[in-house]
């Protein structure tokens, strides 16, 4: 069971890197002023910081919950910070953009929050310090109806719980 | 909370004309030529008028009730209520015996007449439906209720007329539960709200302190199930709208969502999300036994039972993308049924059993559509920038859903409204609500 799941994840990561490399050449034209790669947000507009140099959020491609290289980098910083501040617990909030049905987006937000949580656990953070909550498409940070706004809303945000 | 069905509902047939009639309406096709019908104001005598002003602050309760009927028939798209200014005969005389030639002259094919009496805090209403072309009475009914129920009297008359002329049950004496929305998109305040099917008698069931989503009626009682973020724990709740009592459904260690009742009202079916994976579960409301129905590493959500409780349709991305599936209600025999281009979500089984309504996303547009339960015969009824979550009228002829408008880059111009459309794809109209609105769910007929 676990084996097949991790196998599947590995497979997805490989698949993603293929997609990303394929898209990198193809989709550069859709990049908005250097703020998006493919349709993943890469800017810092809405980002807050848990501590100096520790961004609170990571961004996702449409319908995806796979962590990009940049997301993994952010989550490693969060893991380091959590290790240094062992009294702090966090909630990982999962979010989706407005271009999907409400119920599916709730499930997708949960999947995204857990993708971030799992990565933090991989880097040694105890599972009982991390809870997750999905808001689906209910709590956008950017209220525009355009690809850049949507990319900012497809996110998981790590928030101090105490 | 809401006082309902204090309804002394006595129907007695004033006459038993078992009619074959000349007029009937075929509702299986888009009706581009609605039936001309005259709704004469219901007559009230002077004494009732005095009581009506005293008790209801309404001068002419008879004409108010006939307006309710007229509006229902008009919005159904199947009837064309004629202007009252053209009526030649007075309401009281017409109710006794219409001069059919006069009504034929203004091109009416059917006529509704009636009489109200308001005495001793009782509202007694008689009405008759006449076939103008055949020159005969088609139906005559009377009922008694408390005066404050007068709008429901109008809805019941509408249902009886609809049923007599189309051969199918109506859907007017029903209510809609939905989510009322206010405030900016980034900090939307959402409340549960309930109203009559025609937009009147709105009541708010929650205060807006916590996020609430996706309310759905129990088809057999005045219970509602919905998702609440009370104390930041998103869980499926059960609410009795008569008493206001609420309780969490089951004891799940994580988010439960996408709830719906089984058609017999005995179970709630919903998704439970754990470790990033959502599967479908049921809980029996009597013995509280929880059953797991799906077990798959993909997202399984938006479950909806067939009316005979034997099958479940649901939304899953096990193929890689959101598609619609059907399985037996024990979770066996899972079959994908949506194969068109695009993504499919929110399947909901028609109360007639033959169709599944859904939301489809294709090339940046959202569609509400229907397909047969094996996935054949897909028909898209309406296309828009954003719309989803269809809910069936209890007779399976109309779908209500919500539609959102696009915001500009500053986030302005956003709105969420309820809309309805006939199964035929005709008669699309906005359903009036006091605030912005989403996630509508249609009740069963209240009087049956």
What does this structure look like?
The complex is a heterodimer of chains A (162) and B (448). Chain A is 43% helix and 19% strand. Chain A is α+β, with helices and mostly antiparallel strands and 162 residues long. Chain A has one domain: 60s Ribosomal Protein L30, Chain: A (2-Layer Sandwich), CATH 3.30.1330.60. In chain A, the strands form three sheets. In chain A, strands 5-8-6-7 form a four-stranded mixed β-sheet. A two-stranded antiparallel ribbon of chain A has the order 1-2. A two-stranded antiparallel sheet of chain A has the order 3-4. In chain A, helix 2 (69-84) packs across helix 3. The longest helix of chain A is centred in the N-terminal third of the chain and has 25 residues, at 2-26. Chain B folds into two domains: 35-166, TolB, N-terminal domain (Rossmann fold), CATH 3.40.50.10070; 175-442, TolB, C-terminal domain (Neuraminidase, 6 Propeller). In chain B, helix 2 (61-75) packs across helix 5. In chain B, strand 14 (256-261) and strand 15 form a beta hairpin. The chains are: A alpha+beta (162), B mainly beta (448). The A-B interface holds A 5, 8, 63, 65, 98-104, 106-108, 110-111, 113-115, 118, 133-135, 138-146, 149 and B 184-186, 188, 211, 213-214, 227, 232, 234, 255, 257-258, 271, 273, 275-278, 297, 299, 301-302, 315, 317, 321-322, 345-346, 359, 361, 364, 386, 388-389, 404, 406-411, 414, 438-439.
Widest sheet, order of strands of chain A? 5-8-6-7
Question: Tell me, what is the CATH class of chain A?
Answer: Alpha Beta
CATH topology of chain A: 60s Ribosomal Protein L30, Chain: A
- What is the radius of gyration of chain A computed over CA atoms, rounded to a whole number of angstroms? 15 Å
Q: CATH superfamily of chain A, called what?
A: OmpA-like domain
Number of helices of chain A: 4
- How far is it from the N-terminal to the C-terminal residue of chain B, by CA? 22 Å
Mean pLDDT of chain B: 92
Roughly how much helix do the residues of chain B carry, as a percent range? 10-25%
Weakly predicted, low-confidence segments of chain A = 1-7, 10-30
What CATH architecture of the largest domain in chain B do you see?
Answer: 6 Propeller
CATH homologous superfamily annotation of the largest domain in chain B? TolB, C-terminal domain
Quantity of strands of chain B, as a count? 30
Cα shape of chain B? globular
In total, how many domains does the architecture of chain A comprise?
1
Q: What's the overall geometry of chain A? A: globular
Distance between the amino and carboxyl termini of chain A: 34 Å
**Would you identify the regions of chain B where 5 or more consecutive residues have pLDDT less than 50?**
1-20
Helix- and strand-based class of chain A?
alpha+beta
Reported for the largest beta sheet of chain A, the result is:
4 strands, mixed
